[in-house]
Amino acid sequence: MKIFIATKNQKKLEELNRILIPMGFETLSEKDLEHPLDETEETGTTFEENALLKAKAGLKATGYMSVADDSGICVDYLGGAPGVYSARYSGTHGNDRENNKKLLRELEGVPEEKRTAYYVAAIACVFPDGRQFTVRGECHGHIAFEESGSCGFGYDPLFISEKGCFGHLTAEEKDSISHRGKALRLFKTTIGKYIEA
Hints:
By secondary structure, this protein is an alpha/beta fold. The chain has one domain (about 1-195): Maf protein, CATH 3.90.950. Helix content is about 30%, strand content about 25%. It is built from five helices and seven strands, in the order βαβαβαββββαα. It has helices spanning about 10-20, 45-60, 95-105, 170-175, 180-195, and strands spanning about 1-5, 25-30, 65-75, 115-125, 130-145, 160, 165. A seven-stranded mixed beta sheet has the order 2-1-3-4-5-6-7. Strand 1, helix 1 (about 10-20) and strand 2 (about 25-30) form a beta-alpha-beta unit. The model has no long low-confidence stretch (mean pLDDT about 95).
């Protein structure tokens, strides 16, 4: 079954492919289009709303069932920030280094027990017939005092999970506990119900 992954983020695409392809999906992405995918303005106030906006844009561009992810990190001490603004926290979209620097500055002097945080991934799926659904996965942990490791992307070098820093985990280790891994496993269960319907 063909499914379009509506993202311009190569690392996110790799992660989604790594989980969706073994589920039996034939995935399509921006590289399969004649023209680049238009940027989707993320005007939603929740991860779910933004994921739906991106998935609908993918469906409009391709006509295929489309899936999109919106994800980020929420720090309890900062009232849930950066949240839906995670990718553009420092003011420049997708600048992982500057986003991490800003987060460390915001938490300067904050003790470990108050640095609790959780990653969120919302995955939206829209069908050509108008049906749609979203699923959500979370991974809880805390923010380190400095960056560590070269694996993953985004805030991974700062996020300490039950298995250790995401910046040190292999793809398989991360997928087994990550917010996106959890969301995609729930996605697999949920989409099965829609396809059978």
